[in-house]
């Protein structure tokens, strides 16, 4: 059974700091891994999607990496801003049955 | 381009009633997914529809059901509502080809409260 774990559960950093969020999964049979952000009471905003054959994806200040063999992904946020404060979720799309399994998320607070 | 839209925004029901939630995907998307986000339980996969067919469902009882219409919009029906069904229900859509290698885009959800 696929399990997705995100560490840390919560993180508070000062504005301008670079930070890394971690996501691990137990079954490497995945099609892709997607990172989202969720603001309180809102839906999810897609940030980056990495296909299983890729190693990383970049969008602006965000960079996501994927090491499928070790079951790990990281989301790197450069020069954090208060507007980055949100919950960040990672999700893997399994090859068997194509279900999407989410981690519990990392709550990020960036202090001005 | 309009995003995924869900209605209603909020829905209040009592135990034993039935609820219907609606989702309109992004234009051109043929896959629709439903998720439940209950307090303290995280996002749980409910249902996946593609080209009008149910492709997979999560570990939820049969009273959770749905359908996808010819225009690719979708309904989620929850019968015999229980208190623990209170949650944010999120709909997502993606492009076709089975949708498995495409990013999912989410709506803002329907907040279902059971009294």
Describe the structure.
The complex is a heterodimer of chains A (112) and B (115). Chain A has 112 residues and is mainly beta. Chain A has strands spanning 4-7, 10-14, 19-25, 30-38, 44-51, 56-59, 62-67, 72-77, 86-94, 100-102, 106-111. Chain A is globular, with a radius of gyration of 13 Å. The model of chain A has no long low-confidence stretch (mean pLDDT 94). By secondary structure, chain B is mostly beta strands. Chain B has strands spanning 5-7, 10-13, 19-24, 31-38, 42-50, 53-57, 64-68, 74-78, 87-94, 105-106, 110-114. In chain B, strands 2, 4, 5, 6, 9, 10 and 11 form a 7-stranded mixed sheet that branches. Chain B has a 4-stranded antiparallel sheet with strand order 1-3-8-7, with no helix packed on it. The A-B interface holds A 31-32, 34, 36, 41-46, 49, 51, 89, 91, 93, 95, 97-105 and B 4, 6, 33, 35, 42-45, 48, 55-56, 58, 88, 90, 92, 98-101, 103-109, 111.
pLDDT averaged over residues of chain B = 92
Number of strands of chain A: 11
How many helical stretches of chain B? 0
Strand and helix order of chain B: EEEEEEEEEEE
In percent, how helical is the residue content of chain B?
under 10%
Shape by Cα distribution of chain B: globular
Q: Order of helices and strands of chain A, N to C?
A: EEEEEEEEEEE
Largest sheet of chain A: 6 strands, mixed
Radius of gyration of chain A: 13 Å
Largest interface: A-B, 25 and 27 residues
Short summary:
The complex is a heterodimer of chains A (112) and B (115). In chain A, 0% of the residues lie in helices and 60% in strands.
Question: Can you give keywords for this protein?
Answer:
heterodimer; A: 112 residues; mainly beta; 6-stranded mixed beta sheet; B: 115 residues; 7-stranded mixed beta sheet; 4-stranded antiparallel beta sheet; 11 strands; globular
Question: What topology emerges from the helices and strands here?
Answer:
The complex is a heterodimer of chains A (112) and B (115).
Chain A: E1 4-7, E2 10-14, E3 19-25, E4 30-38, E5 44-51, E6 56-59, E7 62-67, E8 72-77, E9 86-94, E10 100-102, E11 106-111
Parallel strand pairs in A: 2-11
Antiparallel strand pairs in A: 1-3, 3-8, 4-5, 4-9, 6-7, 7-8, 9-10, 9-11
Chain B: E1 5-7, E2 10-13, E3 19-24, E4 31-38, E5 42-50, E6 53-57, E7 64-68, E8 74-78, E9 87-94, E10 105-106, E11 110-114
Parallel strand pairs in B: 2-11
Antiparallel strand pairs in B: 1-3, 3-8, 4-5, 4-9, 5-6, 7-8, 9-10, 9-11
